[in-house]
Each structure stands twice: as C-alpha cells, then as structure tokens.
Amino acid sequence: MADKDCVGVRVFSLNCWGIRYLSKHCSQRYQMIGEMLCKEQHDIVLLQEVWSEKDFLYLKTKLTSTHPHSHYFKSGVIGSGLAIFSKHRIHDTFLYRYSLNGYPYMAHHGDWFGGKAVGMAILNLAGLTANIYVTHLHAEYSREKDSYLSHRVVQAWELQQFIRHTSTGADVVIVGGDLNMHPQDLGCRLLMSYTGLRDSYVETAKFDGCENGMTLIADNLFISKNELIPFEKGIRIDYILFKGSSKTDIYCDFMSTTKGSVPGHALPYSDHEALTAELRLESHIPAQTGSDKTQDTPTEKLAELVDTLTEARTEVKVGLHCAERMRYTAARTGVMGLALLFLELAIAAVPCFALGAEQPFPRISFYLLAALCFAILLTTFLLYIFYTMELKSLQGAEDQMRLAAGSLQEKLRGFSVTQPHSVPQRSPDGEQLCALDPEE
Amino acid sequence: MADKDCVGVRVFSLNCWGIRYLSKHCSQRYQMIGEMLCKEQHDIVLLQEVWSEKDFLYLKTKLTSTHPHSHYFKSGVIGSGLAIFSKHRIHDTFLYRYSLNGYPYMAHHGDWFGGKAVGMAILNLAGLTANIYVTHLHAEYSREKDSYLSHRVVQAWELQQFIRHTSTGADVVIVGGDLNMHPQDLGCRLLMSYTGLRDSYVETAKFDGCENGMTLIADNLFISKNELIPFEKGIRIDYILFKGSSKTDIYCDFMSTTKGSVPGHALPYSDHEALTAELRLESHIPAQTGSDKTQDTPTEKLAELVDTLTEARTEVKVGLHCAERMRYTAARTGVMGLALLFLELAIAAVPCFALGAEQPFPRISFYLLAALCFAILLTTFLLYIFYTMELKSLQGAEDQMRLAAGSLQEKLRGFSVTQPHSVPQRSPDGEQLCALDPEE
C-alpha cells in the first residue's frame, strides 16, 4: 500500500426484528433484506435480532456469492441475535456476554433469554487490521420509569471496556448496533468518551435519511405512536461508530438511513431503520498484508496449533453430544411427567364429577402423584433451559474454533506456496491437515 | 529508562481454598498467608478461591502498607474468588466470565455457583504496561471419567481468546492461577500455543520446590491420597505464565513452590502449594511513563470522563439499592412461606396422630396450602439466587468504575501539577472533582 492510500468501506447495520411467528411479516422481510444486501454489496453487514439460526442460514445461502464470510454469535437461551456478513475474510471472532441483562421472569420483555452480548470479528481491509463490533443492548421499555437503566449502564460500561481492551492492536475500529440509548444518554456518553469512538451520523460529510438521523420513526408501519411518547417523530438509538489509529485516519463521506417503507415494497425492512455508512480509511504507514497476530509464528508451531485446535474441537463436539443427550433426556422425562399427569386426571375424572360419592382413587395418593408430576415438569423445564444454554455456548466455541482453524490453514497454505519444502503437511498422528475442513 | 534497562518483578500465586466454615483452619491459614505476604512483599499477588469478601478485606487491611493497591473480582452467586494485590497502582481492570462452568445441580462440586472467570489488571511496572491475569478453571473431579472436560476446554479457549485480544498493547503479560490442568492437557496446550505464553517452571534458571513443580502434593496435610490416584506423589495444576513483547524481553531467574506445611507452623497455607516467580524484564526501547490509553486525552476530555463516570456510578448504585431491596423482599417472602408451612403442619399435627379420626382441617385445603408454601419457597429461593448474582455484577461494575475514576483523577492531578492554570477543577455542575473519592 502506498503512502496515504485510500480505502473505501461500506458498512450496513440493521436491527432485523426477527422473532419467528411473532414479528410481523418476518420471512417476507428477511427475503427483502437478503435481496437488498445482494444488490447493495456492502463490505460489512452487521445485523441484530436475527433470533433464529434458520434465518441466519437463509441469509448465508442467499449471500454466498456477495458475502462469502459470515459469523453468527451464539449465546443465552435463544441466542445473541448478532450476525456479521463480510466480503473480506474473518480471521478471528470473540464474544463477550454482558453480565446483566434484565430478569428471567420478565418473559414478555424477553431480553434475559436473548443473552445479549457484543461480538467482535477481526478482518483484514486492504492490509489494515479492522476490529468490527456488533452489539445490541437491553431495550428501554419506558423512558420515564426505566427499571433497566442500571443494567444498560453496566452493559455500556462493559461494552466500552471490551472495545477499548481488545482494539489496542487494531488500525481501524467499527462498531454497529442497536444501543437502545439516545445520543445524549449516560451509557452513550460513557461509551463515546472512554473509547474515543466517533458517531458516523455526527461526522458524516453528507447525509440522506430521517430527520435527526432517527432510526425508530413514527412513519414506520410497525411502530405504534404510543411507544414513542414523548418523542412524536421518533428517536435515534441505532449507530455506526468508528475510530482510526495512529496509523490510519478514518472519515465518513456519506451516511444514510431508510425512511420507513421500502420503495417498491409495501413493507419496511424492520421496525428499526437500516443504517449505511460510507467510510474512507487513509493509511499513513505502509501496511502489512497479514492481519492477525499469528503472522510471526513459524510453520511448525502453526501446524501444531492446528492439531491442538482439531483436538479441542473434537472434545467440544463430545461435550455437545453429551449436552444434546442430556437435553433430550430432560425433554423425554418432562413429556412422561405430563403423560402421567393426564393419566391421573383421566382416572380421577369420572368419580370427581359425582361429588360426595366414594372415590376409588385415594385422595392422598392423588395429591402426592400430582405434586410429583408438577415437580418433574418444573425440574425438566429448568434443565431443558440450562442444557439449551450449555449447547449454545459449546456450539459458539466450536464455531469460533472452526473459523480460527480455517484462518490458520489459509496461513499454512500461504507458507506452502512460498516455502514449498518446509511445510509439515501432516500432523504428528499422520492425519492430513486439510482433513480439518473449516466449513465442515 | 535507559537502553536495555532491567526491572525485577516478584509474582506470587496461590489457590487459598477459602470456603468459610468448610475449608479446614480457614481463618488461621488466612492469618498465615497475610503475615507471609507482608513479610515477602511480592510485587504482584494473585489469589484464587478467596470465596468470602470478608477474607479479602482482612487481607486488604493487613497489606495496606505493603500492597496499597488491590482488586477483588465479583461474579456469579458466590463470587469469582479471584483477588489481586499489588505494590504498583492498578490503572484498569476487566473481568471475563466463562460461558460454561459446570452444572447448578452439581451443588456438591460447587463450581457453577462460583462464577469462574478471568480477571485482568493493567499495571505500570517502571514505565512498562503490564497486563496481569488471574484465573481459576473448573476442577477435575475424576481423571478417568471427567464429565467437565468439554467445559474446561471451552474455558481454556475463552481464556486464550481473552488474553490474546486484550494484551495486544501490553509490554509484558503475566498470568497466574489454578488452571486445574496438567501441563500436557489439551486446554494447557491450547492456551500456551495460541498465546505464546511461557511456563515459569519450565523456563526458570533456578528452581526450589516440589518435585516436577507439583502444586497438589501427597505430602500436604489437607490432601487425601485417594484424590491424587493415579498420581501418587502429586500433580502440577497451578501456573505462573508470562510473555514479553517486541519492546520487552522477559526471563524467569528463580521459581519456588511451598512444600506442604510451612516451616514454623503446623499447617500449610492451603491444600494447593503457593508459587513464586522472580521475573526479569529487559526493555529495548525507552518506555513512556504513562501507562493507560487515556494518556493522550486532553484535560477537558478527562474531566468530562470523570463526570460521566460519576454519573454512571450513581446510576449503578441506584440499581444496587433496587436489587438489594428486591432480594430482601424475596428473602422476607420466603421466610413467610416457611412460617406458613410450619403453622399448617402444627395445626394438622394433632389429628394426624389419631389416624382414622375425623380431621378438622379439610384434606384438600391442607394439600393446596402445602403446595402453595412449597411454590413460594422455591420461587423466592430462585429469586434470591438471581438477585445475588445481579448484586455481584452491579458491585463488580461499581468497583471497576471507582478504580477507573481513581486512575483518571490521578492523571488529572498530574496535569494540575504540570499545567497549574489549565485544569478544570470543577465539573460542569459545580461539584468538586475531588468529591469523587476513589476509595469511597
């Protein structure tokens, strides 16, 4: 890269509102989102509230040719809902789960089950190391009586900690997501002032979109005006943030938001507006072509690392099978408990209608059996939730390991091209390295 | 600092086995540990299994003069058990909670309730930025049938991710803790090969301690030989790891472990042996005196940051009070449920003894009331656990914010010495900056 070389990066961010069977026109909207992403070909696509992995896989298939690299961050009971699609290879990923995220008994708000988090992906943009973050903070259900404020402040605190500590080596930092905070809210100020991140809406040279950059607007079909009170026209809670480094300057040349319904369609993409930022990176110092920190590692060490990683993946897969079996057992036991309860009710039903008549089923046994059934149901339900969370964490680790293995193998292949005789093509136990298929 | 300047750093690590009322001779051992730390004056002390905050506070008081800087990492239901004491100012801290950590119903193993994690502290060692990590991984209860293997592998994976991604800007990395893995175990290899960390036992020029550097030995009073089978003499599962950077070389000149009972005392410090490593840092490039990343921030921005931080701390404290109140309500409701159950049992007791006699208490009401009591007890118990976890997370964030505020204020004071006229001594709302007492 020459001195003061310019690289353009188009970043897209959208909260997809993707609750299957509950969000309105969900599959139709995913179809629209997929088509638009295919056409627009942004460099980096950051999505939130992709709650179903099936929808992620739908988009992944749809975007195979335009965005060959992607990652879905798994966490919590349902998932983190976070996904990234990229034109550029993803070298590494990391997920930080917020320590606080609402209450499990506030099931109608659902945030706790989502396992909110911040996901990081490390890309190589024309020789520059770019740390990309996607996140979604706890929703604000009432501005006046916000019982989740302290949770959101702690999330903003952890978000700034995570970004600050993990981005020291990055040339460029880009953050996209639904922060569920207005620009002047405490959490936003904490995040911006601590990290030095800049707001693309504030910094952009040219803007085309909703008034004041709003991302939750009254003109959106899916928004009821009551939700927005006292902000009649809407609020700005979705952001694309960025910062450069001593090596790289970064500017926002253009920013846009959607404005409710999509031209040519009857529907908007989501209840949130989508953001697009056109960023320009200017690098001062000739950049390196490698991007991750394993670049100085000798080939033998790399091959050893791949082996260790294969072994770790195997072990995690064993854990996965075990957790799946345990979850299945919990579900089966739960179903048996339910069947027993129905059976008991059926037996007891007939004499129950004839009140006063003698009961063939002793009352004490009846109540004890019913209590047992309820205990079984409750226990198996809790276990089912727990094993689902375990599965998500194991799958998440396995995904990250697979991606890391793919990146290492690419590096090894690079070595074998430049140093054809020095690459150990076999691991110590004779297994072919390429047997570890990164996309398996 | 001159070219190739040397700095000696003495690091101490110990799993304290500090379960109040359950671990043998707990308070006596903490007294011994406190006295030894006072005398030895290590630069950095990394402790694990300090399960009670009271014990941390006892050590903190005891070490005020030798180790004025400390941090206790809060997490999970009980806590992470991780603590750090330092001669050098702690500029920043960050905690990563492992996504997997055993099962809540394996209460006798207790790991789940501990909320295992890795804590990071950023220090300035003679002008070098040192990232210090302390961690404790899930225990291995059976070598042959290790049902937690996948959990420990995922923990090792997350540990290496956390260290690798957060230490990019560090001149020196030091990791201490109980990894619960033998040196050749998969998780250990994953950690070492991915991060490039070196093992002080392997690297040390001189060693004095147990055979093979073992840290869980048969000669320890608190260890039953059955636990160690098939490793008769003991195993090595505690480590001090380190690595330098392009700027700094690091060597281990001397390493030692305790050998069971402490000379002059009847007891060992813990069921684990304590590790001490004498590290030598050699810096190539003149180091900067500032250590954290806010060093280039102008004074006004720093003052603004302190204000935002104060506001955030207030908000978190509001959340803390709210969570405390909720936990108190849960506990009170639970006690009322219990009282109701006892009352019911007392009323029902007399006729129950005379079986066959007519009961004044209708059976159906009896069972319904009992079921209600049990439901209340279970719900309030779960809520109590949940609010305790929430409290721990809020307290943890507040602690980290207080520490960060202290560090920022120190920086501001530094500015006010060098630039006496340019420092805003008051925040915008007129509050004295010094009102934010970092040790409050």
UniProtKB/TrEMBL annotation, chains A, B:
It is a multi-pass membrane protein. SUPFAM superfamilies: DNase I-like (SSF56219). Residues 419-440 are annotated as: Disordered. The chain crosses the membrane at residues 335-358, 364-387. Keywords: Hydrolase, Lipid metabolism, Magnesium, Membrane, Metal-binding, Sphingolipid metabolism, Transmembrane, Transmembrane helix. It holds the Pfam family Exo_endo_phos. It is an enzyme of class 3 (hydrolase). Residues 13-272 form the Endonuclease/exonuclease/phosphatase domain. Signal peptide: none annotated. It is found in: Membrane. Its main location: membrane. Pathway: Lipid metabolism; sphingolipid metabolism; Sphingolipid metabolism. Belongs to the neutral sphingomyelinase family. This is sphingomyelin phosphodiesterase. It comes from Ameca splendens.
